Amino acid sequence: MEERSTGELIGIKNSSTAHWQQEAIDQATAELAKRKVTRAEESYYLEEWQKELKAAEEEQRRELEKNVGVDYTLFEKVLIFVFAPIIVIYFVKNYLNFRELRKGNYQLKIKQRYRLLIGGSVVWVIILFIAMFYSGWRPW
Fold it and tell me: Long-range contacts for 51-55 (Cβ within 8 Å, ≥24 apart)?
């Protein structure tokens, strides 16, 4: 523990056993006492980390709010529409990648993706039925 910085040691000391083993927490506490780090210094580090955490959370919140109205490009829409059956078959095990869109708060993209996948699949089914009809092949 001697090679760790004071900030790292304070972080270890104030973390839980979910992140560090109790022995490491105890060693960090002992090393801080050996370095004669005051409670005021610990508080300073913890307050700075809280500020950084709040700033990061605020930035993430702004990013999620910005994602609400993000739209697919025309090229992306055409690709999704044309390859809809392949996308549905290939990605059905991954919930059609909607999980990632929800996580990123892409509400408009989710609606568009549903519409494009359903529309593209319906068009492909119609094309296949027309092709079967004109080829003379009748399965029924």
Answer: none
Q: Which residues, including other chains, have CB under 8 Å from residue 31's CB and lie 6 or more apart?
A: 1, 2, 4, 9
For 22-49, the pLDDT digits (tens) are 998 999 999 889 888 888 988 998 999 9
> DSSP assignment, residue 83?
T
Which two structure tokens, joined as six digits, stand for 8? 């790292």
pTM of the model: 0.58
Dist CA 119 CA 77 (whole Å): 11
Contact 109, 101 (CB under 8 A): yes
What is residue 61's predicted lDDT score, i.e. its pLDDT?
A: 93
**What count of Cα atoms within 13 Å lies in the side-chain half-sphere of residue 123?**
12
Judge whether residue 128 has pLDDT over 60. yes
How far is the C-alpha of 87 from the C-alpha of 121, rounded, in Å? Answer: 10
Residues 6+ apart with CB under 8 A from 45: 6, 7, 10, 11
Tell me the two tokens of residue 11. Answer: 């972080």
Identify the CA nearest to 81 among candidates 126, 115, 50.
115
